[in-house]
Each structure stands twice: as C-alpha cells, then as structure tokens.
Write a structure and sequence with these properties.
With 110 residues, this protein is mainly alpha-helical. The protein has two domains: 3-65, no CATH class; 68-108, no CATH class. Helices cover 65% and strands 0% of the residues. It has helices spanning 3-14, 18-28, 36-47, 59-62, 68-81, 90-108. Helix 2 (18-28) packs across helix 3. The termini are far apart.
Length: 110
C-alpha cells in the first residue's frame, strides 16, 4: 500500500459518519465549500470504492461543471414525472412515488 492509501484507510476508519467525512473535506479542501460537485467527487474518492477509479481532477476543471448534477437530477425527475423511463428497481420507484405523494399533499395544504 502507498502512503496515500494508508492515509485514506485511516480516514475511513476514523471518520464514520457522512457528517464527519463532509466536515473533514470542507476543512481540508476549501474549494469544496464552493462546489457541491467537487465535494461529492472528493467524498467518493476518499470514502468509497469508487476512489480506486477517480483520480485527481483539478478544481478549475470541476467548477466548469458545477450545478450540472442538480440540472441532471431535475431533468430525470421531470422525465419520470411524465411517466417515461421510470426506475427499474421497484424499491426506488416505490420510494419516489411515496415522496411525490407527500410533497403533493404538503403543497395542497399550503
């Protein structure tokens, strides 16, 4: 193992919760405070198996795409609200339908 992988393994064991991990990234990588995409990439790189495949990406490159994740999520949501390309996992479909109903009722009551 390299020094970097030893450090990451130590972090994975030391920082157990998502909150602790996100706080660590925000402390050590100030640019992550400005970009959710950068924060997510760093989180995946440090604390998941995807880290094996995600190499260093300069913040200057990532900030060009900041906001795209939310745009993509919203577009997927809009398409699926039209009943097209629904989730293939029944658990995901059930969870999203339940959330949709909760939001619909909440908005109706406002």
């Amino acid at each position: 193992m390299t020094i970097m992988s030893n450090n990451i393994e130590y972090l994975r064991q030391k920082l157990r919760t998502v909150k602790e991990r996100v706080e660590y990234i925000l402390e050590k990588h100030p640019n992550a405070r400005n970009s959710d995409l950068y924060l997510i990439i760093l989180y995946l790189r440090y604390f998941t198996e995807l880290g094996k495949y995600i190499k260093y990406i300069p913040y200057e490159v990532i900030k060009q795409y900041d906001g795209i994740t939310e745009t993509i999520r919203r577009m997927r949501q809009k398409i699926q609200e039209e009943g097209r390309y629904l989730p293939t996992d029944p658990k995901v479909l059930k969870r999203r339908r339940k959330l949709y109903e909760l939001y619909r009722r909440a908005i109706k009551g406002v």
